[in-house]
Design brief:
The protein is mainly beta. About 10% of the residues lie in helices and about 35% in strands. Strands 2, 3, 4, 5, 6, 7 and 8 form a seven-stranded mixed sheet that branches. A two-stranded antiparallel ribbon has the order 1-9.
Length: about 180
């Protein structure tokens, strides 16, 4: 929660810079990749009083960790994401009127405070890759034995069709005693 009393309705056109290091909250990512809870998030934001509310714009820099979706090797890099959101003064009326989809997506100023966490979470999580990879040409793991395919370029397994397995002993040679 961030105090914005100094940017009230009577001060439209005024702005304030916000540059802070804040700890990342819980669940700031998806299963394979995200921002670890407690790691530093660098905020570089501008809060600007406008007629409708307070416009928050700028960027957030977060350390991302996870694993490659192909080879399961660990990943770690910094991600900078742009943020822009309007926090409105007026809350929707709850007199039984149906709320539009836009009102559900709206963020509100409550008691001269704004909650940046949902906005930052939306910006960061949507910028994360759906299937993270350690590098674009990652070949992944062998589906038979789990070896890294990048370590053994010609790696393969001879797979015998089970329909022909009964004919394997007809050659008269035992594959174990062959010399």
């Amino acid at each position: 929660m961030l105090q914005v009393q100094d940017l009230g309705r009577s001060s439209a056109g005024s702005s304030r810079a916000l540059q802070e290091h804040v700890p990342a909250p819980k669940d700031f990512g998806v299963a394979m990749i995200g921002v670890q809870e407690g790691s530093d998030m660098d905020l570089d934001l501008t809060l600007e009083a406008v007629y409708e509310g307070i416009l928050v714009s700028g960027s957030v820099l977060v350390p991302v960790t996870g694993e490659c979706s192909r080879c399961l090797d660990p990943l770690a890099y910094d991600l900078e994401v742009d943020v822009q959101e309007l926090f409105s003064y007026e809350e929707p009326s709850h007199d039984g009127a149906a709320a539009g989809e836009d009102e559900e997506e709206q963020h509100w100023i409550e008691h001269d405070m704004i909650d940046l966490e949902p906005v930052l979470r939306d910006a960061v999580v949507t910028a994360l890759p759906f299937q993270p990879v350690c590098r674009e040409d990652c070949q992944g793991l062998c589906s038979e034995c789990g070896i890294h395919l990048a370590d053994e370029p010609g790696h393969h397994h001879e797979v015998l069709d089970p329909r022909w397995a009964g004919l394997q002993g007809l050659t008269g040679k035992d594959s174990l005693t062959e010399s």
